Amino acid sequence: MRPLPCFALALLLLAGISACSSSDQAAAPSADAVAAARTQMEAKAEQHYAMYEEMLKADNAELALPLGDELLKMYPQSAAAARLRPTIEALREKAATEGETRRMARLWSYQISPMAGGTQSTATIYSNEDLGAEKVRMVFRRHTEWGQSVFLYGSEPGFSCAKNCRVSMTFDDNKPITLEGSIPPTGEPAIFIEEDKKFIAQVEKAKSVAIEVTVKGKPTSTLHFDVGGYDGTKFKPLPNK
């Protein structure tokens, strides 16, 4: 028998390799392998779901939501995903609400400190927009000698108001109201809301307030405050002298 030429031998070897490869590719995984993979996937999905449930039990929708979204993406065919899927949109809305509440709570600062021979407790928030050189502070103040007051504090040249000063404001989407105001005779760039109890009561149930003010020498402007995060328990009462 004459030996095959090298080229023909190579073709035969390639054909053999190709046949083996085709055979390997055509081999389907066994039922046991499929079942094992499914069991492993379900176990990982349940571990993920357990972390998700922990955040729900802690009433933290902001942290539960990304865990839920990740589970649906990684294990969409799992039993855990089937349990989670009907509730994920409600959780998304709750997380958005929680996030907004936390954002507004961070806008407020509370402090107790010495002031003018006494002690004062304050709750302070800044306006959303600048008025002149800087934002305007809304301040709730309780002082051991002066009692309770509410005022806006800006920058020079300060605010102006008519002799019978009324301050117009709108809480959320309600109708505008006016409350009595005053300009301090000592010249500070402030305007007081004299009906402080009524104003604070409105803030306690509102998400926002828009207040119309007039800076000296300028037209009327509107200041917006996102007050929904106000916590009255942190605005500490003080004994009067």
Explained architecture:
With 241 residues, the protein is of the alpha+beta class. It has two domains: 6-104, no CATH class; 107-234, Immunoglobulin-like (Sandwich). The protein contains six helices and nine strands; from the N terminus they run αααααβββββββαββ. It has helices spanning 6-26, 31-57, 61-74, 79-84, 88-106, 196-203, and strands at residues 109-115, 118-131, 134-143, 147-153, 166-171, 177-182, 190-193, 209-214, 220-225. The protein has a nine-stranded antiparallel β-sheet with strand order 1-2-3-4-7-6-5-8-9, with helices on one face. Strand 5 and strand 6 form a beta hairpin. It is elongated. The model is unreliable at 1-15 and 17-23 (pLDDT under 50).
Short characterization:
The chain is 39% helix and 27% strand. It has 241 residues and is α+β, with helices and mostly antiparallel strands. It folds into two domains: 6-104, no CATH class; 107-234, Immunoglobulin-like, CATH 2.60.40.1880.
Itemize the secondary structure elements and their pairings.
Elements: H1 6-26, H2 31-57, H3 61-74, H4 79-84, H5 88-106, E1 109-115, E2 118-131, E3 134-143, E4 147-153, E5 166-171, E6 177-182, E7 190-193, H6 196-203, E8 209-214, E9 220-225
Antiparallel strand pairs: 1-2, 2-3, 3-4, 4-7, 5-6, 5-8, 6-7, 8-9
Helix pairs in contact: 2-3, 3-5
